[in-house]
Write a structure and sequence with these properties.
Helix content: 25-40%
Strand content: 15-25%
Structural class: alpha/beta
Oligomer: single chain
Distance between the termini: 39 Å
Number of helices: 5
Largest sheet: 6 strands, parallel
Radius of gyration: 18 Å
Number of strands: 8
Length: 192
Protein backbone atom coordinates (compact mmCIF):
# COMPACT_ATOMS: atom_id res chain seq x y z
CA UNK A 1 0.00 0.00 0.00
CA UNK A 2 1.20 3.52 -0.58
CA UNK A 3 2.14 5.12 2.76
CA UNK A 4 -0.44 7.90 2.28
CA UNK A 5 -3.36 5.43 2.14
CA UNK A 6 -5.96 5.76 4.86
CA UNK A 7 -7.21 2.22 5.33
CA UNK A 8 -10.52 1.01 6.75
CA UNK A 9 -9.99 -2.62 7.77
CA UNK A 10 -13.43 -4.29 7.61
CA UNK A 11 -13.57 -7.69 9.26
CA UNK A 12 -15.23 -10.23 11.52
CA UNK A 13 -14.68 -9.53 15.21
CA UNK A 14 -14.10 -12.33 17.67
CA UNK A 15 -11.77 -15.19 18.44
CA UNK A 16 -12.09 -17.06 15.13
CA UNK A 17 -9.15 -17.30 12.75
CA UNK A 18 -10.50 -14.25 10.93
CA UNK A 19 -10.72 -12.29 14.18
CA UNK A 20 -7.17 -13.16 15.26
CA UNK A 21 -5.76 -12.38 11.80
CA UNK A 22 -7.66 -9.07 11.72
CA UNK A 23 -6.23 -8.02 15.08
CA UNK A 24 -2.65 -8.85 14.14
CA UNK A 25 -2.93 -7.31 10.66
CA UNK A 26 -4.34 -4.03 12.01
CA UNK A 27 -1.62 -3.84 14.68
CA UNK A 28 1.13 -4.67 12.16
CA UNK A 29 -0.15 -2.04 9.70
CA UNK A 30 -0.37 0.60 12.44
CA UNK A 31 3.11 -0.33 13.73
CA UNK A 32 4.39 0.12 10.16
CA UNK A 33 3.07 3.69 10.09
CA UNK A 34 -0.22 3.24 8.24
CA UNK A 35 -3.39 5.06 9.27
CA UNK A 36 -5.92 2.29 9.90
CA UNK A 37 -9.50 2.37 11.15
CA UNK A 38 -10.83 -0.93 12.49
CA UNK A 39 -14.43 -1.63 11.43
CA UNK A 40 -15.56 -4.99 12.88
CA UNK A 41 -18.82 -6.77 12.24
CA UNK A 42 -20.23 -9.23 14.74
CA UNK A 43 -22.37 -12.04 13.34
CA UNK A 44 -22.88 -13.86 16.65
CA UNK A 45 -23.23 -12.31 20.10
CA UNK A 46 -20.66 -14.70 21.53
CA UNK A 47 -17.95 -13.37 19.21
CA UNK A 48 -18.27 -9.65 19.95
CA UNK A 49 -15.87 -7.47 21.86
CA UNK A 50 -12.65 -9.41 21.32
CA UNK A 51 -10.74 -6.49 19.79
CA UNK A 52 -12.21 -3.49 21.60
CA UNK A 53 -8.75 -1.93 21.99
CA UNK A 54 -8.46 -1.63 18.19
CA UNK A 55 -11.49 0.66 17.88
CA UNK A 56 -9.33 3.79 18.00
CA UNK A 57 -9.90 5.60 14.71
CA UNK A 58 -6.83 7.13 13.05
CA UNK A 59 -8.96 9.39 10.78
CA UNK A 60 -12.51 10.33 9.82
CA UNK A 61 -13.89 7.56 7.58
CA UNK A 62 -14.88 10.10 4.91
CA UNK A 63 -11.12 10.51 4.28
CA UNK A 64 -10.60 6.80 3.61
CA UNK A 65 -8.73 5.91 0.42
CA UNK A 66 -8.79 2.14 0.81
CA UNK A 67 -11.07 -0.55 2.26
CA UNK A 68 -9.70 -3.99 3.08
CA UNK A 69 -12.48 -6.59 3.25
CA UNK A 70 -11.22 -9.47 5.43
CA UNK A 71 -14.06 -11.96 4.88
CA UNK A 72 -14.64 -15.34 3.22
CA UNK A 73 -15.12 -14.81 -0.53
CA UNK A 74 -18.70 -16.11 -0.60
CA UNK A 75 -19.97 -13.11 1.43
CA UNK A 76 -18.07 -10.26 -0.27
CA UNK A 77 -21.18 -9.10 -2.13
CA UNK A 78 -23.15 -9.00 1.13
CA UNK A 79 -20.36 -7.07 2.91
CA UNK A 80 -19.90 -4.62 0.03
CA UNK A 81 -23.57 -3.88 -0.64
CA UNK A 82 -25.34 -4.43 2.67
CA UNK A 83 -22.92 -4.10 5.59
CA UNK A 84 -21.03 -1.18 4.04
CA UNK A 85 -24.00 0.16 2.11
CA UNK A 86 -21.80 1.34 -0.76
CA UNK A 87 -19.46 3.44 1.44
CA UNK A 88 -16.43 2.05 -0.38
CA UNK A 89 -17.65 2.77 -3.94
CA UNK A 90 -15.07 4.72 -5.90
CA UNK A 91 -12.26 3.79 -3.48
CA UNK A 92 -9.69 1.00 -3.56
CA UNK A 93 -11.39 -2.12 -2.28
CA UNK A 94 -9.04 -4.97 -1.45
CA UNK A 95 -10.37 -8.47 -0.77
CA UNK A 96 -8.43 -10.32 1.96
CA UNK A 97 -10.08 -13.76 1.95
CA UNK A 98 -8.47 -16.65 3.75
CA UNK A 99 -8.74 -19.62 1.48
CA UNK A 100 -7.16 -22.95 2.30
CA UNK A 101 -8.30 -25.25 -0.45
CA UNK A 102 -7.08 -26.07 -3.94
CA UNK A 103 -10.41 -25.04 -5.44
CA UNK A 104 -12.59 -21.95 -5.23
CA UNK A 105 -16.14 -22.13 -6.54
CA UNK A 106 -16.85 -20.01 -9.62
CA UNK A 107 -19.47 -17.94 -7.77
CA UNK A 108 -16.88 -17.08 -5.08
CA UNK A 109 -14.32 -16.11 -7.74
CA UNK A 110 -17.00 -13.96 -9.39
CA UNK A 111 -17.54 -12.07 -6.11
CA UNK A 112 -13.79 -11.46 -5.73
CA UNK A 113 -13.54 -10.19 -9.30
CA UNK A 114 -16.67 -7.98 -9.00
CA UNK A 115 -16.21 -6.46 -5.54
CA UNK A 116 -12.47 -5.85 -5.27
CA UNK A 117 -9.82 -3.86 -7.09
CA UNK A 118 -7.11 -6.23 -5.86
CA UNK A 119 -6.58 -9.17 -3.52
CA UNK A 120 -4.31 -9.89 -0.55
CA UNK A 121 -3.41 -13.49 0.27
CA UNK A 122 -1.14 -14.98 2.90
CA UNK A 123 1.04 -17.24 0.74
CA UNK A 124 2.24 -17.98 -2.78
CA UNK A 125 0.16 -21.15 -2.57
CA UNK A 126 -2.99 -19.04 -2.00
CA UNK A 127 -1.98 -16.74 -4.86
CA UNK A 128 -1.54 -19.67 -7.26
CA UNK A 129 -4.87 -21.18 -6.18
CA UNK A 130 -6.68 -17.88 -6.73
CA UNK A 131 -5.10 -17.40 -10.15
CA UNK A 132 -5.78 -21.01 -11.27
CA UNK A 133 -9.42 -20.70 -10.22
CA UNK A 134 -9.99 -17.53 -12.25
CA UNK A 135 -9.25 -14.49 -10.07
CA UNK A 136 -8.17 -11.80 -12.56
CA UNK A 137 -7.41 -9.02 -10.08
CA UNK A 138 -3.89 -8.09 -8.97
CA UNK A 139 -2.89 -10.47 -6.14
CA UNK A 140 -0.39 -9.42 -3.50
CA UNK A 141 1.13 -11.83 -0.97
CA UNK A 142 1.25 -10.34 2.53
CA UNK A 143 2.91 -12.71 4.94
CA UNK A 144 1.29 -12.91 8.34
CA UNK A 145 3.52 -11.68 11.17
CA UNK A 146 2.05 -13.20 14.32
CA UNK A 147 2.24 -11.13 17.47
CA UNK A 148 3.47 -13.58 20.08
CA UNK A 149 3.74 -13.01 23.82
CA UNK A 150 7.32 -12.66 25.09
CA UNK A 151 8.96 -15.92 26.13
CA UNK A 152 10.87 -16.32 29.37
CA UNK A 153 13.87 -17.96 27.70
CA UNK A 154 15.12 -19.30 24.40
CA UNK A 155 14.91 -22.81 25.86
CA UNK A 156 11.30 -22.53 27.00
CA UNK A 157 9.12 -25.39 25.79
CA UNK A 158 5.74 -24.61 24.25
CA UNK A 159 3.28 -27.51 24.18
CA UNK A 160 0.18 -27.33 22.05
CA UNK A 161 -2.49 -29.59 20.63
CA UNK A 162 -2.81 -29.25 16.88
CA UNK A 163 -6.36 -29.63 15.56
CA UNK A 164 -7.40 -29.81 11.95
CA UNK A 165 -10.82 -30.82 10.70
CA UNK A 166 -9.75 -32.27 7.36
CA UNK A 167 -6.25 -33.12 6.16
CA UNK A 168 -2.70 -32.55 7.35
CA UNK A 169 -1.65 -30.95 4.09
CA UNK A 170 -0.38 -27.61 2.90
CA UNK A 171 -0.87 -24.93 4.11
CA UNK A 172 -1.76 -26.09 7.66
CA UNK A 173 0.46 -29.05 8.28
CA UNK A 174 1.92 -29.77 11.71
CA UNK A 175 5.60 -29.80 10.64
CA UNK A 176 5.41 -26.38 8.93
CA UNK A 177 3.60 -24.92 11.94
CA UNK A 178 6.13 -26.39 14.38
CA UNK A 179 9.08 -25.19 12.32
CA UNK A 180 7.62 -21.70 11.93
CA UNK A 181 7.40 -21.19 15.69
CA UNK A 182 10.84 -22.75 16.29
CA UNK A 183 12.87 -20.49 13.96
CA UNK A 184 15.97 -18.53 14.96
CA UNK A 185 16.85 -20.67 17.99
CA UNK A 186 13.58 -19.58 19.57
CA UNK A 187 11.42 -21.69 21.81
CA UNK A 188 11.30 -25.44 21.50
CA UNK A 189 7.85 -26.35 20.17
CA UNK A 190 6.33 -29.75 20.75
CA UNK A 191 2.96 -30.95 19.64
CA UNK A 192 0.67 -33.90 19.33
Amino acid sequence: FPSHDKIVFVCIDGTSGYGVLARETVLNLRNSGYKVNYLPFVFEKSLGGHNQDLLLNDFDESQATCYILNFPPHILEYVYNYLLGGRCKGKKTIAFPLWESEYIKKEYVDQINRFSSSVIVSSEWNKNTMRQCGVIKYIQVMYHKPILPPLRSKNEVINFVYQNSKVFGQPKDLITTKNFYSIDNGPIVTGK
